[in-house]
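cron nightly-structures :: item 1 of 1
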Amino acid sequence: MSEPTYSFTVPSIHDDTALDCRIYHPKEILKSIQSNGPRLRGAIVAHPYAPLGGCYDDETVLSVTECLLKQGYTVLTFNFRGAGDSAGKTSWTGKPEVDDYSTIAGLAVYYLQHLTVGSEKDDESPPPIGLLLAGYSFGSLILARLPSVSTIIQRFESAEKGTAASEIFLRARTLAKQTRQGSQDSKATRGREEDRSHDSPNARSLRSSIVNIGGEETNSSERRRSRDSRRSTEVISEVPHQIKSHIKRHSRHQHSLDDTDIKVADSSIAARYLLISPVLVPLTTSLLSPGIPFTSGTATDQEGAGMMSLRWPTLIAFGSADTFTSSKKLKTWSERLAEQSSGRLEWMEIPDAGHFWREKGVMRALQKSIISWLNKP
């Protein structure tokens, strides 16, 4: 398994709970952030239920992460509240966990956006960034309730200075500048030694030398708790104190490492969704109180919905021997969603695979299914 490039904590936009986070770089990271490189693609993989031992070290999470890295994705994994070394406790409603996932989604978008600063020509707009939002087991339950990426980003752009959302933006900018600096250093080295490949020691340093980052980007005197922040509608007029003051203009005509002003347009993010071994729960459970239900309907009529809006390419993968939810129920649910998605949602049942993907050959079959889906035109 590849080692993460960065390991750090970020505050949840729900209530500032500290969440563990990792960023993994693919071998192609240098090409992706340099001119004329392949389109930058990122992914987030969410883990199973924390009270049952779920965390970002879960074997299925790690296997899917490795699969995505080999496909050229920059992958972010994280621990929900109450999992691993993340602070807090698992909630009964799932609402805080939805915000935890949204926190990492915002981090991913801003990190990937900042990596592209100065990489395009003056007469070109930056290419869309591919963002895969994935969840396994409990992680898929939270993913299905996640708002759309554009809705998540609107929450960040209307945040006040000193809040968790502002801290996420600054952390993404700092990490991206560090990665870009490493890319420039490696490019200079390759210029002196042209016989080195993209998998040279310098390239490996961007993806396999763990950098543990502590503390926060914002001065402690300026930090304010997210729970104490006023509603975004009450602070729209305070533009100088919002993240919008940092990202109100695109800086593609500037090429130094100090470029930090980026605007995230809706068209700049191409989202996909991947649900692995989703857990279907009855409507009476508190984990599915007001929100998007699994067992009936969709969210096509809900403004700002994400995966359940059925507007984005989606893959649902599960095993025929899943003991958490019967494959019959999973097939019925998946077929209904597929019929309503106009071909955007696909599903795959892996023979003999259980919920934990430990049977012989089933993980490889899952990975092949994911790769095939990702590479469809």
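cron nightly-structures :: done
Residues 118 and 256 are 7 Å apart (CA to CA).
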